[in-house]
Amino acid sequence: MNVIFVGVGAIGLPMAAQIKLAGHAVVGVDVSEASRMRALEQDIEVVSRFDDAPTADVVVVMVATPQQLADLVTQAEGKVTGQRWVIMSTVGPDAVREQGERLRQMGTCVIDAPVTGGTARAKTGELVIFAAGAPDELEAVQPVLRAMGTVRVVGSRIGDGQGIKVINQHLCSIHIVAAAEALNLAQALGLDQAAVLSLVEKGAAGSWMLSDRGPRMLEGTDVSVSSAINIFVKDSGLVAEAARACTADVPLLQIAHQRYLAAAEAGLGLRDDSRVIETWSPSR
Asked: What pairing do the DSSP bridges indicate for beta strands 45-47 and 58-61?
């Protein structure tokens, strides 16, 4: 299939590479020159604007924010009839429904398919994809989706995939902050943090985030970035917005959101999300 992949950043580029590896023709779109250079290094053709991309059967969208999605749809107006758009960004149910309706009116089919698994699983094609849409349209884009990971069909309504991702990010947001708080507590108790981590992570108190982020929390500020603080500022904010819209009470999420905001305000926005631990220990 001919695929346009919009947003070849930290997670988008390995996703696009997996699609190409599966035998599809891929052209990336990204406003960032650095992202375009990295795509070219992986032999993926890339342009700076959607307008400059060739005609495609499938458009995969991996932009960062709801506003970027809205801007992309505006750019695409009049150029997308007959295409299938797969929106894989974490933008929340309201945004994907609103922009999905705009695309539908342009003659485009829309699949709501956010992902979880991070850059590590994106690089191996082992993401989990929460896919929602009309059954025949889901079937049509399966060859592209399967190149990136395991597809979990969660419903036929656009927005249901984003709803599942909201719950996923609610838990991820809290688990990362909980891991940071626990490791800071270990330090305050005079315990060796690495030893504590190894003792508790495989027991009842363990979590995937504790095992994944915990070691990076102990490495220091300059640890390589897997997912930035700013991503969780955005994602935990989206969860909070979704909760307000349906009047759900999420006090733990609100606490976690404030920690990410504090980390960003401390100049850590582009650092790895594990650096949220520095909101407890600024001198680390």
From this structure: unpaired
Interacting residues of 12 by C-beta distance below 8 A, sequence separation 6+: 5, 6, 28, 30, 35, 62
Map residue 84 onto helix, strand or coil: strand
Structure tokens at 26: 């891929």
With a CB cutoff of 8 Å and minimum separation 6, the contacts of 224 are: 272
Model confidence over 48-77: pLDDT tens digits?
999 999 989 999 999 989 999 999 999 998
Q: How far apart are CA 184 and CA 223, in angstroms?
A: 17
Contact (Cβ atoms closer than 8 angstroms) between residue 131 and residue 154: yes
Tokens of 177: 């902050």
Instruction: Quote the CA–CA distance of 280 and 269 in Å, as a whole number.
Output: 16
Euclidean distance between CA atoms 175 and 83, whole angstroms: 38
The type of residue at 278 is: E
Q: How many CB atoms lie within 10 A of CB 105?
A: 9
- Percentages helix, strand, coil for the chain (3-state, rounded to 5) are 55, 15, 30
Amino acid 8 reads V
Residue 78: pLDDT over 80: yes
- Bridge-based pairing state of the strands 115-116 and 127-132: antiparallel
How far is 174 from 257, CA to CA, in rounded Å? 8
Q: Which of 164, 9, 151 is nearest to 92 (CA)?
A: 164
C-alpha span between 211 and 127 (Å, rounded)? 18
User: 179-214 pLDDT, tens per residue?
Assistant: 999 999 999 999 999 999 999 999 999 999 999 999
Would you please indicate which residues are annotated as catalytic (active-site) residues?
Answer: 165
- Token duo for residue 13: 């580029």
